[in-house]
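Subject: design request, 250 residues
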């Protein structure tokens, strides 16, 4: 019997309560594979979650990554493959989905607005919001600084892992073996790679198809147990994201 885990690194008083490690089975990311990636960090520069760049001031991440986090008390770093590198921007505004449920992980998505503008270049770019329902059998790329083994040692370099999407029906069937698994809904997308996948520290990190953001890491059975990892499906929240950003940029 396995226990479901939120795939974030718990940080208390600036000290990680778990080792921050790599995606299980991943490889060092190429520079252009990390162009959408965000590292969410404490003010003491401790990575705890990932995210994806949407605009010059807006980032999307998992809703559970923002629990206990107040504006001005954490930062978002972009533009580096190093878990400690990049240019940091203080997070000035946190908008978690109003229907987010920390127990069932329903609507596990949040928007962050930075106090300063993110400067785009060849290695820092906004991801396009997916408009389409991604079917099963499609290869997409997961990036993040999560654990390589559970538990394990810190990865200093962003990891990349090609994964294949699966139907929600298959995902539900696989997770039926674990009584702790939250419900899998239409607002989720699942992806799998044999003996590989997301782990602690990957929550909120992007699942990318081309330059299209199709998912952000929500939860999984730790780690790489071939259940399939569960992501928040971006196409299901595209309208909410656009309306929320437009309403707060006016």
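Subject: RE: design request

Done. Sequence follows.
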């Amino acid at each position: 019997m396995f226990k479901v885990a939120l795939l974030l690194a718990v940080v208390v008083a600036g000290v990680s309560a778990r080792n921050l490690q790599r995606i299980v089975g991943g490889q060092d990311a190429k520079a252009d594979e990390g162009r959408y990636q965000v590292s969410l960090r404490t003010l003491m520069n401790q990575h705890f979650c990932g995210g994806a760049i949407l605009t010059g001031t807006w980032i999307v991440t998992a809703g559970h990554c923002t629990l206990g986090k107040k504006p001005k008390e954490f930062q978002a770093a972009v533009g580096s493959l190093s878990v400690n590198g990049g240019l940091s921007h203080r997070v000035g505004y946190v908008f978690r989905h109003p229907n987010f449920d920390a127990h069932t992980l329903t609507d596990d998505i949040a928007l962050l607005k930075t106090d300063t503008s993110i400067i785009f270049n060849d290695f820092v770019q906004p991801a396009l919001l997916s408009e389409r329902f991604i079917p099963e059998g499609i290869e997409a790329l997961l990036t993040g600084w999560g654990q390589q083994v559970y538990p394990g040692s810190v990865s200093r370099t962003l990891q990349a892992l090609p994964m294949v999407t699966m139907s929600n029906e298959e995902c539900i069937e696989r997770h039926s073996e674990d009584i702790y698994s939250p419900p899998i809904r239409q607002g989720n997308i699942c992806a799998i790679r044999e003996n590989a996948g997301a782990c602690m520290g990957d929550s909120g990190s992007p699942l990318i198809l081309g330059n299209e953001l199709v998912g952000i890491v929500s939860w999984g059975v730790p780690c790489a147990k071939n259940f399939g990892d569960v992501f928040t499906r971006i196409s299901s929240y595209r309208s909410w994201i656009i309306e929320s950003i437009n309403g707060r940029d006016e």
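Confidence is low (pLDDT under 50) at residues 10-22.
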